[in-house]
Q: What sequence folds into this?
């Protein structure tokens, strides 16, 4: 039973949930492992569009199936952007899938990740009830923060129908540096020292395919050169021309560096793509451990997250062992492997909260 | 209950247990002084193991408990429950680590907010959320109520800075979520826990993200003939695409109070004062400053004063942060409201508050976070006058309903607590409230963790009275 329902209104979405015993919502399928579960799928393809956008409020509300690309374009017309720097935008990622996967991009380094910009959700719970949680203003402390809980919940606790976000005014200029990181020790030193510096760097990433740290500065055009020059005095490197820089960041945001000769959508032969929350001190050991298994590793956000791409034949058990050795855990975004590898945090409360939101077990569990 | 007390005595040393009205009196109220309630007992654990043992004890005995830090909640969030325990966490006040590489601090719940920044300062780091009570309020309370401050538009509230939580849930289960990484995989449990108003359990260790201290500030104070002009200036700053760290407005009554309390000096004839602060690397601030100064100059202020040095900046903030307690000089009692309105409707909201205030014959001073639409109307009354408190509460209720009608929120940073629990149905449907109740029951099936907060209903009623918090009278804390 792997067919798909495609409701075209929020009411139809709730009805579809009520009438289907086992189901999972899917967006554009850019992180296919997250929905690789044998059950009915609810596509959000026809639940698309921005419902409210008030630039002066720094907020917008859109249907869950809205492509992030469309949101980004609308915001850009008014000089605004999503500061968590969504990933896979060109690939077609939807807003709902982005929230459910909890994946943020390199720019999350400056002001925070997706969780820091989600304000409200309207969702369908396991009983088919359409519920709104959070508030549509940039500051709100009323009720439990269910919107945050949905970030990274993989659609296992409810189906997102609408989402409200906080946005920011977009910086006027951008300048990217690449800094030489000949050894892993140097790389980590740059990541941590640059993060604590006075420059307020926007993105700070250890590139997957070259011994370099990419550092992005944003702000008024006149301010960027002096800041960049000071950084380059401290660490050898160079300023990238804008087009080269754009291509670099796009490669990271779209995971194009991770693609092997086998297309990632090719099912069982797909390469393995993992997200690993980390800290700067373990970024280097993690990278080394994964490289020893033949992986490419992108360390993002100043060493707070790593993305690792393995060839299709990768041995998930070996990956799991490396993660456990470093006391880390990973989420599998693409490829054939268990959803979670590495250490697991098993709690009783996870089960009771699942029951509170989905007593019928209509949605898969977090383990599948 | 005496049998319960007997068993409780075995868990603690005698001096960790307070009993009897005299010992309990200091705990009967919090920052919402209009309510008071004596608990059965106050317990003062010194270790996280003792906290866990106490929660498990409460679970076994079906005994209600209220975790308490410094008792500065403005929504009555730490108001005791009759027949229940108050678990005073002030002795769990260790900063367990400050890590300059990961840029995090791990703290116990009784650590005072401002001390986190003090500990981080040698590394050039600080902890961003800055409630006005930050010199006394605790991180545990901040986490329970998702406290805010003046810098939320740019940097977010407490929940945006909590990376990891070790907590004991009301069931007695000890959980650890998140950690030192700024990223997470799987559901955001820390996000769900933060702001639970003490209904899920007690945080034992909290991992906080630290930010590099801004190199440079540019703080501007501008006086205006009308509140609307100050509001228009805020709109102009936003429209220009600047992202200030803080934008605050005080109205005439609040200014009068600040002058009386800390001898703040404001432009003569100003009916409203706007404070805007830019921060960042000096090169960035230098450029943004040109834009800001131009916008402010064009907004027709009576006077426009950029802070020339750190001392002048401190003076500007001192006036602002003392405004609440200063209002205590204008009136024997006051209620602070905390509603949020969409920023574009600030002017309209303030006009309507003014009208409601005149209609009710009750003075209202306004101090607010203009950048994020978070109002703080201070409703002045005299508790010695029969019916005055009730009239003030009725006005507060009308203001809250107005905020929700305008598309805003009941609370920006104080939480619902006891004070605003009855208004929850104005913002959420009965199905939505039921969902929240199911979540609460998942964490606390017995309903023993801080009952009577957040949800409307007869659960744990409290008595009312009036008067400033003793620390407020002393000028140590302020309500915001």
A:
């Amino acid at each position: 039973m792997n067919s798909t329902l495609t409701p075209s209104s929020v009411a139809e979405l709730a009805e579809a949930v009520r009438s289907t015993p086992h189901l999972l919502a899917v967006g554009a399928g850019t992180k296919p492992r997250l929905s690789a579960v044998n059950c009915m799928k609810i596509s959000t393809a026809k639940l698309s569009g921005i419902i409210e956008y008030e630039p002066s409020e720094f907020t917008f509300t859109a249907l869950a199936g809205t492509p992030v690309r469309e949101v980004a374009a609308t915001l850009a017309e008014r000089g605004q952007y999503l500061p968590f720097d969504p990933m896979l935008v060109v690939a077609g990622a939807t807003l709902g899938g982005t929230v459910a996967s909890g994946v943020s991009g390199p720019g999350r380094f400056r002001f925070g990740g997706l969780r820091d910009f989600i304000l409200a959700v309207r969702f369908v719970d396991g009983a088919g009830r359409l519920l709104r949680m959070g508030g549509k203003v940039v500051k709100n402390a009323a009720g439990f923060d269910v919107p945050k809980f949905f970030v990274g919940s993989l659609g296992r606790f409810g189906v997102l129908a609408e989402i409200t976000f906080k946005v920011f005014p977009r910086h006027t200029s951008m300048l990217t540096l690449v800094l030489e990181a000949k050894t892993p020790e140097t790389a980590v030193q740059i990541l941590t020292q640059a993060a604590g510096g006075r420059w307020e760097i926007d993105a700070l990433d250890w590139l997957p395919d070259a011994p370099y740290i990419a550092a992005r500065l944003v702000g008024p055009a006149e301010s960027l050169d002096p800041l960049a020059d000071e950084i380059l005095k401290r660490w050898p490197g160079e300023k990238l021309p804008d087009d080269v820089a754009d291509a670099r960041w796009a490669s990271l945001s779209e995971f194009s560096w991770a693609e092997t000769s086998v297309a990632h959508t090719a099912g069982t032969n797909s390469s393995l793509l993992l997200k690993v929350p980390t800290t700067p001190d373990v970024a280097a050991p993690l990278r080394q451990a994964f490289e020893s298994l033949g992986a490419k590793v992108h360390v993002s956000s100043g060493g707070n997250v790593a993305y690792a791409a393995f060839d299709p034949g990768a041995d998930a058990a070996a990956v799991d062992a490396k993660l456990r050795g470093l006391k880390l855990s990973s989420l599998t975004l693409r490829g054939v492997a268990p959803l979670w590898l590495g250490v697991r945090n098993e709690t009783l409360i996870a089960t009771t909260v699942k029951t509170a939101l989905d007593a019928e077990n209509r949605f898969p569990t977090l383990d599948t | 209950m005496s049998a319960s007390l007997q068993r409780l005595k075995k868990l603690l040393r005698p001096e960790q247990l307070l009993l009897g009205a005299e010992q309990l009196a200091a705990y009967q109220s919090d920052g919402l002084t209009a309510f008071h309630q004596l608990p059965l007992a106050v317990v003062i654990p010194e270790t996280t193991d003792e906290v866990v043992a106490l929660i498990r004890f409460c679970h076994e005995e079906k005994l209600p408990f209220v975790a308490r830090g410094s008792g500065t909640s403005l929504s009555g969030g730490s108001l005791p429950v009759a027949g229940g325990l108050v678990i005073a966490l002030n002795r769990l006040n260790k900063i367990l680590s400050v890590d300059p590489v990961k840029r995090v601090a791990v703290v116990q719940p009784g650590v005072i907010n401002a001390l986190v920044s003090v500990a981080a300062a040698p590394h050039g780091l600080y902890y961003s959320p800055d409630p006005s009570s930050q010199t006394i309020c605790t991180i545990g309370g901040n986490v329970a109520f998702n406290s805010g401050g003046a810098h939320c538009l740019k940097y977010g509230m407490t929940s945006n800075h909590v990376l990891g939580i070790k907590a004991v849930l009301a069931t007695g289960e000890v959980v650890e979520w998140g950690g030192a990484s700024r990223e997470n995989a799987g559901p955001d449990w820390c996000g769900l826990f933060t702001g639970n108003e003490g209904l899920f359990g007690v945080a034992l260790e909290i991992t906080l993200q630290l930010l590099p201290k801004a190199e440079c500030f540019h703080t501007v104070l501008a006086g205006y003939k009308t509140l609307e002009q100050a509001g228009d200036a805020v709109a102009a700053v936003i429209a220009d695409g600047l992202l200030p760290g803080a934008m605050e407005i005080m109205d005439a009554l609040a200014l009068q109070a600040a002058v009386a309390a800390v001898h703040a000096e404001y432009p003569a004839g100003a009916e409203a004062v706007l404070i805007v602060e830019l921060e960042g690397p000096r090169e960035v601030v230098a450029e943004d400053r040109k834009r800001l100064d131009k916008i402010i100059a064009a907004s027709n202020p009576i006077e426009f004063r950029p802070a020339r040095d750190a001392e002048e900046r401190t003076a500007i903030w001192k006036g602002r942060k003392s405004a609440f307690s200063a209002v205590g000089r204008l009136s024997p009692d006051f209620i602070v409201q905390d509603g949020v309105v969409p920023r574009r409707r600030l002017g309209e909201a303030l006009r309507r508050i003014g009208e409601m205030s005149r209609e009710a014959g009750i003075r209202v001073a306004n101090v607010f976070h203009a950048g994020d639409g978070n109002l703080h109307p201070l409703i002045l009354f005299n508790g010695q006058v029969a019916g005055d408190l009730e009239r003030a509460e009725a006005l507060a209720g009308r203001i809250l309903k107005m905020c929700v009608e305008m598309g805003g929120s009941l609370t920006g940073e104080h939480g619902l607590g006891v004070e605003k629990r009855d208004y929850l149905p104005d913002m959420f449907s009965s199905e939505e409230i039921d969902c929240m109740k199911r979540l609460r029951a998942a964490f606390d099936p017995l309903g023993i963790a801080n009952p009577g907060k957040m949800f409307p209903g007869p659960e744990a009623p409290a008595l009312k009275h009036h008067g400033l918090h003793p620390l407020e009278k002393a000028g140590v804390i302020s309500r915001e």
Observations:
- The longest helix of chain A spans residues 221-234.
- Residues 262-267 of chain A have pLDDT under 50 and may be disordered.
